[in-house]
Hints:
Layout: H1 3-14, E1 18-27, E2 30-40, E3 45-49, H2 56-64, E4 71-76, E5 79-80, E6 91-94, H3 106-112, H4 121-134, H5 150-163, E7 168-172, H6 180-197, E8 200-205, H7 208-214, E9 217-222, E10 225-230, H8 232-237, H9 242-247, E11 252-262, E12 265-270, E13 275-280, E14 290-295, E15 301-303, E16 312-322, E17 326-332, E18 338-344, E19 361-365, E20 372-374
Parallel strand pairs: 3-8, 3-9, 6-7, 7-8
Antiparallel strand pairs: 1-2, 1-4, 4-5, 9-10, 11-12, 11-14, 12-13, 14-20, 15-19, 16-17, 16-19, 17-18
Helix pairs in contact: 3-5, 4-5
Amino acid sequence: MTETATSQKTAASSAPFIRIENVSKSFGSFKAVDSVSLAIKKGEIFALLGGSGCGKTTLLRMLAGFETPTTGKIFIDGQDMTNIPAYERPVNMMFQSYALFPHMSVEKNIAYGLKHEKMTDAQRKDRVREMLDLVQLSQFGHRKPHQISGGQRQRVALARALARAPKLLLLDEPLAALDKKLREHTQFELMNIQHKTGVTFVVVTHDQEEAMILSDRMAVMDKGQVKQVGAPTEVYEYPNSKFVAGFIGSINFAEGKVAAVNGDMAEIDLPSMGGRFTACSIPGLEAGKDITLAIRPEKIAISRENPGTKNAVQGVVNDLGYLGKDSLYKVQLPSGMIVSVNLVNARRVGEYDRLAVWEDKVWLSFEPGSPILLTN
């Protein structure tokens, strides 16, 4: 293969499988999706994450072909799909309600999507059998949906959606109907099935944990706009704004001012925390600039004794919650600020073996690399 051909092949393989270019969708005067641009890779699980009304489901429906963009374009596998009807797209969708036919068996539900495919009866039966094996429901093919569990119904809906071998599978809140324990288990099943098939998944969810576990990358949305795109670790550890930092997980915010920048370290005056603290600097930071210091509860150490470090402050336990695997402390500082702290329960403790209880004085401390500095 020539060098030119090799470079062309590399460029093609690295090209986005889905391109959403400046897409907007308005309903009257209301703009549900506002100038969204995204590039989604072939074979990845991509999550659209946000609260109710953020535009994530409208964007999913435009990918499916159920809605047409007011402006902008949508490309799937290099083809302009902006005005292509849903039935002509290489896309299938798994709905939140699963939409299974109650009077049909599991096998017939899966086969339903194949009835318009150019297949012989034998090929159709083989495909259904293959899908049942994929979702580990071979022994339940003759049962009706009401005769299987919620998690099994979810897998039937997934098998039906995958039966036509779509290039893209859209999943709208796919696990919302399941209880917490079953949802956690099914998340990993979904990931394994996607890995086996190699189909590109785009998942809409409002559940942060679900997006973090399922996705290779995610887009955090608010008011019709994408606020940040990245891998779960990137979005959680390096949010680009107060909105993203506050939306993903729990976090403490303290407003302050930059006192000094020394190389890769910054000195921050935080009146609400009662002093000056050290944190890793960010590009463009200058003395005198307003800044928000954000720190996750699990990145704060709590102790009865003064740790003797610079980033330390004393407070009083205002509230306490035992969550099994960890304990949540709400510590009130002299300024009145409440700081949330998560302490992992690494060993079994009794009611009176806790590090601190209500009204106890404690010290909070953190490493300079633990906080996130935000300017917006």
